[in-house]
C-alpha cells in the first residue's frame, strides 16, 4: 500500500522526469475504477433471485462457488484497503464501476486508479482521450492474474506503461480463412490468407503476441530421430531466447505484427516476400473478409468486412500516460 507521506507527493511531468519539481502536477481527486468479479457479473443475470437462491443455482449448475466467493472476497478486501489508504493519504476518492465510467467522471479526476487486472486497466485506458490524464492500475488478485500492466497491491518497485496492447483482425468463425491486403513500408501491397492478424505494442508483447509466437516443443521432438532429452534441452533454451526477444519495452515506438497461420503456397502470399511477423512503425490492413471483426485489447470490437481499411501507427502525442513514482516506498 502507499506510504501516506509519499502518496501526498505523487506527481507527474510531461517528460516523465523522476523529480517532483514545481512543474509537477499535484494530484488531489482520484477516480477509483473497481472491476466487477465473475460472481458479481453473473448475479446480474439473476436479478430476481436472492443471494442464497443465486448460490444454490450456481451449485446446481456445477460452478465452483467456493472459488468464486474466495476470489470476490480477495478482490473486495484489497480494493477496499486501497481505497482506505488513498483516503488516509489525503486524496478525495470517488469509487465507481465500469457502468459509471463516463467522460464527465474522467474529466473530474486528476488521476484514474483501477482495482482489478489488466482488463480493468485497459477499459480505463480506452476511454481516456487526453494523454495528460495519468492512469495507475493495481492488481487485486495477483495469485491468479499476472497483471503485466498493473502493480500488485503490495509492491516494492514500480513500472511505467505507455501503450495499449493489441489489435486483432479476423473472421468471426474460426473455420473461415481470413483474407487481408497488408501494406508495410518498403513492400508492395500484399494479399495474405491466414487465421488472423495481430498487431501489438510493447505493452502487449507479454501476452497474446508472445503466445502466438512461442516456439512449440511438440513438433521438433516428435519429428526427429535425435534423443528426445537432447531435443528438449535445445528447444527449451530456444524458447527462452525467443521469449526474451519477443518482449519489447512499452515505450518502444514500433509495433509488431503477426500474420497468424499464414498460408504459403505458389500463389499466396501475393506477391511473395512478406514475413509472417516483424517490427514496423506503421502499416495498413484492408479487409477482403465476409464476417470479420477488428478487436482492440480484447474489449472493443467493430465489423471489419470487405472494403474496410485500418491504418495503424504509434505517435508520441497520443501515447497512454501513466505514473512514475520517485523514491516511493510501499509496504
From TrEMBL:
UniProt cross-references to Pfam families, sorted A to Z: NAD_kinase
SUPFAM superfamilies: NAD kinase/diacylglycerol kinase-like
EC annotation from Swiss-Prot or TrEMBL: 2.7.1.23
Gene Ontology BP terms: NAD+ metabolic process; NADP+ biosynthetic process
Example of a GO cellular component annotation carried by this entry: mitochondrion
Origin: domain of life: Eukaryota
InterPro entries recorded: ATP-NAD_kinase_N, NAD/diacylglycerol_kinase_sf, NADK
Gene Ontology MF: a single term: NAD+ kinase activity
Cited PANTHER family: NAD KINASE 2, MITOCHONDRIAL, PTHR13158
Family of this protein: Belongs to the NAD kinase family.
Protein name as annotated: NAD(+) kinase
